[in-house]
Amino acid sequence: MFGRLNQLVRHLSRPLPNYVHLSAANPRAGLVHGVTPSTTSSSAMAAERGHGKGLIHTAACLIIGDEVLGGKTVDTNSAYFAKFCFSLGINLKRIEVIADDEDEIVEAARRMSRNYDLVVTSGGIGPTHDDITYQSIARAFNLPLKLHEDAFARMKQLSKPHPSQPNFDWEKPSAALAAKKRMVELPIDDSRPLEDQVVFVDEKLWVPVSVVNGNIHILPGVPSLFQSMLDGLKPRILPRLTDPEGKGVQRILISTPMAESAIAEYLTQLAAKVESKGVKVGSYPRWGKQSNTVTLVGRDIEYMESLVPEVEKAVQGRRVSVEGEDDVEGGDPEAGKLASG
């Protein structure tokens, strides 16, 4: 009996696992949608270190909206973000499209914030009932929604009255005013500097970028606004890149008349050869065209340039500036079908 008691005492005297200490110090570092604390301890520690201040290596994009999933709206924002990341040398790892569903947004926001250095969301921040991005992401990180007075003042100053609301009064309580205020009621973490959470990237826009948990950037879904505000974030992002000058990744295009299956073995060998240099080899069929495209992508442009003559010879092609520049007008479309495979 005493032996069992001694074993129990020794067991209880052992140091607690890291995740237990974290959960006790911070309730938000505990369970996340069924994931056990032991699997989320490293991510919780990343959040507690002030996630969003370190170097940016990876990124993710979350497109929110029933209209995208229903085919009513075509998503162009993720493509713009992909080009933005590529130009800066940021490794875009994931793009997701989800519904205007609070549980979906909560789960995705937590997971993406945990897994990637830079997260951008698009959509769901308007005045209507289905615009629930702010409230959902606030819930994801146990934050209150607070009226941002500066954003509200900018809204009043820069917004133009809608023809359907000729008698709208900014000072008189109304359903319309409450709806407008929803767009400037933002998730606010009192433990973080406010200037790090609400960012105005254009003096001509009242819409702020709401930054949550240090790395989630909430942007509108309107493509012109999304693009303008994303570009406005660039000065804040550049200092956190491994390449502060923002030269980013380079891409070399080589057009080939050969079928993918005919060059597959060579490209496999080439990919293995250049992997240690951080270069990726890609192959892209162009259905109905006379040529396919081989790409070299990486940062070491001198090394990549040295590969061009070899690749051109192996695939019987030539380097091009843009895909399709060597297409022949009125060519045989069947040739392109053959080249594709």
UniProtKB/TrEMBL annotation:
Compositional bias annotation for Acidic residues:
323-332
UniProt domain MoaB/Mog: residue ranges = 60-240
Q: Which Pfam families match?
A: FLAD1_M, MoCF_biosynth
Region (Disordered) residue spans? 318-341
Q: Which domain of life is it from?
A: Eukaryota
One GO biological-process annotation of the entry reads: flavin-containing compound metabolic process
Q: List, in alphabetical order, the Gene Ontology terms for molecular function in this entry.
A: FAD diphosphatase activity
- List the InterPro entries: FLAD1_M, MoaB/Mog-like_dom_sf, MoaB/Mog_dom
PANTHER family in the record? MOLYBDOPTERIN BINDING DOMAIN PROTEIN (AFU_ORTHOLOGUE AFUA_5G11210)
Name of protein: Molybdopterin binding protein
- Native organism taxonomy: Eukaryota, Fungi, Dikarya, Ascomycota, Pezizomycotina
